[in-house]
Amino acid sequence: MSYSIGDVSRVLGMTTSALHYYEKEGVIDTPKEESGRRYYEDADVMRLISAKKYRSMGVSLHDIAVQFASDGMTGEQVIARMHEKRLEAALEAARYAALEADIARLIARSEAGLSAEGAVDVRLVEDMLMLRGTKGALVPRDHEEQRLARAWLDAMPAVSLSIARRSGEERADFALMIPRAQGEARGFAPDGRAVTLLPGGMAVHAVAVCGEEQYEQPEVIFRPILAFAREHRFQPAGPLWGCMLLVDCSGGRRRHYYDTYMPVL
Q1: Where residue 32 falls among pLDDT bands split at 50, 70, 90?
Q2: Strand partners, 188
Q3: Residue 186: pLDDT over 90
Q4: pLDDT above 70 covers what percent of the chain?
Q5: How many CB atoms lie within 10 A of CB 10?
Q6: Which residues pair with 263 in a beta bridge?
Q7: 42-56 vs 16-24: helix axis angle to the nearest 10?
């Protein structure tokens, strides 16, 4: 049987440009009617369906054309390529499984944060890794720190946009943070410069909510835990830090929710 290019394109979900490419590369032999219209025969459609199978595995158009050429790949080479694509699929599946787990953690923290606005407690916190540029800038000028920042940002949503204030400092700065276990799994580690380990332990905790003032006064997010610490005579035992949970943009304003912590003795 013969089929029009429009019908083949619609049924196979291939663009006409892809069909023309396969024709140009000799994957299919597309005769033309006297009117100049192309038509496809069963042999062409079967090769195109086979090509679609390999395309679904992530094989490029060029590599498919090479595979189906008259002097193309052997059966062993085709199987080797399928092994390669299977490994790629397994790695991608693992990446999506990790992404699902990261999103689930963020959902749980955010839901807890929405219901705990204004509440202050004392809880056990896990070890954290913090990336903060040596100049305190969100976009560092140092090329090595730029490389680090890019790697950390690529690890979102496991990485959180954060605000931190080191001991003895008056002003806080923006930073990136990730739980130590998740960070180490991604190859992140303290470097004595931009990446710092924040040891876990007991900490005063509060969900702080602020507006746009955080950009001029990042330390505004620590007011609830600092007020609680003064009232109960807690002394900070390390840097204050907070991870952004979400931003509520309803009602014509932005409300930034932060999980904030102050390590205590």
Answers
A1: low
A2: none
A3: yes
A4: 96
A5: 10
A6: 203
A7: 110
User: What residues does 181 pair with on adjacent strands?
Assistant: none
Nearest CA-CA partner of 178 in 130, 224, 220: 130
The 3-class secondary structure across the chain, one letter per residue, is CEEEHHHHHHHHCCCHHHHHHHHHCCCCCCCECCCCCEEEEHHHHHHHHHHHHHHHCCCCHHHHHHHHCCCCCCHHHHHHHHHHHHHHHHHHHHHHHHHHHHHHHHHHHHHHHHHCECCEEEEEECCEEEECCCCCCCCCCCHHHHHHHHHHHHCCCCCEEEEEECCCCCCCEEEEEEEHHHHHHCCCCCCCCCEEEECCEEEEEEEEEECHHHHCCHHHHHHHHHHHHHHHCCCECCCEEEEEEEEECHHHCCEEEEEEEEEEC
Pairing of strands 160-165, 128-131: unpaired
Tokens describing residue 6: 């429009």
Any idea what the Cα angle at residue 32 is, between residues 26 and 34, rounded to 5°?
160
Nearest to 67 by CA among 51, 52, 56: 51
The three-point CA angle 28-34-38 to 5° equals 30
- Residue located via tokens 């991870």: 243
The pairing of strands 2-4 and 195-198 is: unpaired
Reading the block at residue 64, the tokens are 């498919």
What predicted TM-score, i.e. pTM, was given to this entire model? 0.78
Cα separation, 109 vs 191, whole angstroms: 28
Say if residue 239 is preceded by a cis peptide, omega within 30 of 0: no
**Are 74 and 39 in contact, with CB atoms under 8 Å apart?**
no
